[in-house]
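Retry 2 of 3 after timeout on previous attempt. Resubmitting structure tokens to design endpoint.
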């Protein structure tokens, strides 16, 4: 599946999804999209609008020209420009449980006439707090939670297909790491049309089942936020590396069976403490027989601090990659990746 693209005319970026601006609600990260769909709106992940543009670097430049600081994460700049230039007039921003700069971004957008709806994940995964937040979001969008729970049952069936694509990646070696990344990362908003998404996912799954197995030397895990660099997976493939685990992207697909909306978003690891995430990572390392880990950290992101804790608690080789702006891997990064994969081959 190709990621969504949209034509840029100068710096005017129309929506890449088939939806009117009135029905679109931008999201800054994965939020309870069941509520958005149940209310008759269409969730649009602004990260996808940004990174799938033909010139994402120009999007970052535009944000800096509009006074966003140079030493701010490029994803934040991408969210800002994608909101302003896409025609979206309303966004849901996560102010607790995501980027530490999101709160300021929301206020910055408010000053430019964008309607902003805050949403918070409880740091301790406390169900009462989370259920209250779900209720507030539903009330703001004019829908009751019972209808959102029914939508969960519908979307669970869609996500199940992506879970099968994930299994075909690590257990059957039929799906590449890049394909796995694209399908999983797209579940943050189901590309604005869950019915069409499901049709495409089912078709891809059937095509993948009939493929020959991939030929590779190393089984790699990728942890951390999705990469801003465009050629990481293709470069790893050339080195005969099979990425069998995309940690955060997989979390977007809600990989655990749950009966309620509250429990689903309480088990979603990304917004919560690093030790909860590490527990999930370690379990998948064992199940997927992973040889080594790439820990991707975004420049100027508070999550860089977690690298030390990850190295302390995960006992297989780890390569930490730090990227700033969108674009291809630098020469030094390629050299480091080559050296890392050579080391893993020698260990095997």
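Retry 2 succeeded. Sequence:
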């Amino acid at each position: 599946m190709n990621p969504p693209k949209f034509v840029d005319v100068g710096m005017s970026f129309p929506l890449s999804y088939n939806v009117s601006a009135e029905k679109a609600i931008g999201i800054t990260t994965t939020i309870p999209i069941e509520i958005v769909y149940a209310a008759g709106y269409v969730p649009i992940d602004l990260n996808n609008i940004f990174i799938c543009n033909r010139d994402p670097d120009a999007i970052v430049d535009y944000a800096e020209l509009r006074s966003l600081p140079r030493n701010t994460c490029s994803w934040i700049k991408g969210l800002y420009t994608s909101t302003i230039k896409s025609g979206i007039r309303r966004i849901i921003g996560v102010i607790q449980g995501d980027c530490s700069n999101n709160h300021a971004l929301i206020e910055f957008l408010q000053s430019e006439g964008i309607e902003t709806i805050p949403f918070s994940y409880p740091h301790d995964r406390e169900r009462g707090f989370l259920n209250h937040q779900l209720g507030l979001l539903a009330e703001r969008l004019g829908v009751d939670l019972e209808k959102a729970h029914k939508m969960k049952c519908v979307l669970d069936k869609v996500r199940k297909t992506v879970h099968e694509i994930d299994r075909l990646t690590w257990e059957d070696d039929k799906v590449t790491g890049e394909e796995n990344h694209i399908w999983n990362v797209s579940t943050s908003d189901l590309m604005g049309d869950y019915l069409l998404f499901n049709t495409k996912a089912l078709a891809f799954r059937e095509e993948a089942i009939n493929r020959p197995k991939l030929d590779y030397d190393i089984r790699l895990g990728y942890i951390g936020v999705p990469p801003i660099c465009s050629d990481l997976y293709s470069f790893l493939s050339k080195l005969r590396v099979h990425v069998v685990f995309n940690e955060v992207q997989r979390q977007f697909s809600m990989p655990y069976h749950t009966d309620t909306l509250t429990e689903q978003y309480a088990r979603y690891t990304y917004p919560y403490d690093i030790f909860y995430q590490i527990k999930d990572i370690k379990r998948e390392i064992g199940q997927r027989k992973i040889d080594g880990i790439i820990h991707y950290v975004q420049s100027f992101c508070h999550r860089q601090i977690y690298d030390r804790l990850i190295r302390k608690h995960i006992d297989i080789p780890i390569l930490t990659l730090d990227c700033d702006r969108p674009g291809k891997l630098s020469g030094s990064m390629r050299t480091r990746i080559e050296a890392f994969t050579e080391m893993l081959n020698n260990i095997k």
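Attempt log closed. Confidence is low (pLDDT under 50) at residues 1-15.
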